[in-house]
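Render this sequence as a predicted structure.
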Amino acid sequence: MYRNEFDKLISQDKKFDAYLFYGQSNFLVDYYANKVSLKHGSKEDIEKIYFADYDFKYLKDKLLQSSLFSSNNIVLLKLDKKLNKKECDELIEACNKNPDSVLIISCLGDAEFKTMEKSFTTKTNSVAVRMFALNPNEAVKMLEQKASAMGIKIDMNALSHLFFMHKHDMSLCVNDLNKLAILDEQITSNIINTHCFGIGGVNFEDFLYDLISAKDVTDDLFMLLEEGMNEIYLLNQITSFVQQLFMISAYARSFGQANPKEILGFIPPKNIWEKKSRLAISIKPQNFLEIFDFLTALELELKSGKIKNQDIFLQASLRKFQVLFR
């Protein structure tokens, strides 16, 4: 099941005995796991079990037995590797037997969790939800909803500025909204610059521009990977950036001057939009398909499991990318 389908079920107050959240976006996986756990009970009702603390026998016994202190018996299990099918099936069965129990599995990282979906079916009143990375438009709208719920007075331009400052990292954006919530004033980009700080030694937006412009990104790429940026995540961000450039190019060539509101769904900072528009127009339309083919093939290679050192392989592949499409 995809996120939009699951959102409809949530709005109808549909509840399941067991949930599996996994996919490209660790932020969304964590966000929905916590959101669902609180729909079933209070924070005091939730037992969180993390990674290496997983103990199948303990967890199965807990799900079979009702809590002595509450009518809700909620377990939020965070995993970085998949469970075998037998254990997964037995844990879901335990929730089916005990109406007080709910199991929520939050899968974080790049392990292959899709095979676990087979255990989550209508028959067992369980659901698996796959999360894909948010595009900038979706991300900024989600931040707008979060800010509104927190009573923060902030416009879309400022939210866009915060999003780009943190290199599309939603967790850092939400953390900063918590800081900004104490300010009883309209939040502007200048206020964000005063109270919030970007991370890392490399400006990620500048890195993307330089990569596509065939400038030397060797040092920046090395630093990004040294800072712990995941290779697949980095590649997905490059692809997302190129998709935006393609939409800008196609719109401008079809209708004249590109309209950011119609293309992205919001208006980004003026300097970012102008720089991105110039880059988009500089790319020949026929080159976009070749670029997408290259990035897709590279992603498949990285996900194949055959590449022993993904870090070095990605660096070499992106140098080749720049030579091919300069």
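Summary. The radius of gyration is 22 Å. The first strand starts at residue 18 and ends at 23.
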